[in-house]
Amino acid sequence: MTIAVDMGADTSGAPVLIDLEELLATRLLVQGNSGSGKSHLLRRLLERSAGQVQQVVIDPEGDFVTLGPTYGHVVVEATDYSEREIARIAGRLREHRASVVLSLEGLEAEGQMRCAATFLSAMFDAPREHWYPALVVVDEAQLFAPTTGGEVAEDVRRASLAAMTNLMCRGRKRGLAGVIATQRLAKLAKNVAAEASNFLMGRTFLDIDMARAADLLGMERRQAEAIRDLPRGTFLALGPAVCRRPQTVKIGAVETSARSGSPKLTPLPSAPAADLKELIFAEPEPEAAPQLPMAFEARPRRVPAEELISEMARPASLPPEPERSDEEVTTIIADVLRAIVEDPESAGRPASVLFQDFQVRCRMQGLSRSGVELGDFTRRLSSARAGIFDTTDPEWAEAVALAGALPDEMVGPFLLVAKAAKEGAPCPSDAALAETYGTSSLGRVRRLMGYIESRELIVTRTDLSGKRSITIARLGWTTAAAEAA
């Protein structure tokens, strides 16, 4: 299922869309000088994709914490936790698929790099069963993957750079899709920037940055001057998730705002100079000075790590959904599985990725809680690929019970054979079994069938003409003979 994120409009007013699934596979790099609208662009992307995919934001300035009240992001104030607690929180958020904003505001540059490295490394090292798709947005990425050491300790720089490199180079297989934003490409490590396949280039003025941006966009050097003339909030887009040729996009409006905004001119005080001098050099009052009014609430209390982890584990509050009978739930799940199997793009995707697609489709059908966990979904998906969408059907109860002795990924091929045997249809070919198993290797399928036969679940017979038939002795079902190739 394709999910399109509306980022704004091009020069003709047509909407510019980002394919969220393609973005998860190909990553994104955003570049632009301070004030060019990078944070606004990231906020638009996060708001429009909220609820579709897990989101993790590395926020050095604390600007994205305002996403929490509106979109349910858990805000983690890094100053309140130790490195060990940060690592625990990162592991738990992968397990519970909570959207999180890691605010690094209040830390020095070295502390920000150390915290981000610990957090990203813990996410990267999560167990395989927790490799769910997630957008990992890193604002001001040049702070965490610098080209030079600067004034931070060398071990901290290396740890931070390694974590960013893992995110961009090896994170895709773990479901982590890096979205990095930087003020200057020249300050961002090349091996981190080079892994992005999608680009949104904003206004920049230095020749070295314009040249690198033009190279990434496939533009000639003389065309790079156009990057200098881009208005604020306008970017040049390119990449498989956006468009195949450079395209100008004006980023649309957002619903939330940052805690810090651009400075605005306000009238100077009209008091005489003598009065101002007296105010400046006045003796301090003995009592504490009154607190200045704040535009935002004061920093909340420190939340213990255990309480924060418990909050992430607690399911989000949703409006009550209508009561459904077990038959209705079973029908919806079967229809969703049928739609996933019929989608040609789902054939080569792992079950952990399709599980998110399954949950989204169930919500679209009005079923917010399907009651299906990842392990159960894997077996149901294997059955659906074999053409059996309702495993509770008494007609297939015996075959499903026999399949319970096999690993989850082998259920599909076995049930495909069982379906053909029950109907007396020709024996499935190796290619059909490979498609159900999720592989293109026919040799692997032959080894798979040999393993199932060694478990005494099937008996394979090949006649003199080379045609194969398979019998499920315990059920008394036999396929018709057919070519294995």
Question: What's the helix count?
Answer: 18
Kindly state the mean pLDDT as a whole number?
Answer: 82
Helix content: 25-40%
State the end-to-end CA separation: 32 Å
Domain unit count? 2
Which stretches of 5+ consecutive residues score pLDDT under 50? none
Q: What is the spatial order of strands in the main beta sheet?
A: 2-1-11-10-9-3-8-7-4-6-5
Question: Mind telling me the C-alpha Rg?
Answer: 28 Å
How large a portion of the residues is in β-strands, by DSSP E? 15-25%
Sketch the major β-sheet: 11 strands, mixed
Dominant shape: elongated
**Strand segment count:** 15
CATH classification class of the largest domain: Alpha Beta
Protein name: AAA-like domain protein
Domain Helicase HerA central: 10-69
Pfam family, one: DUF87
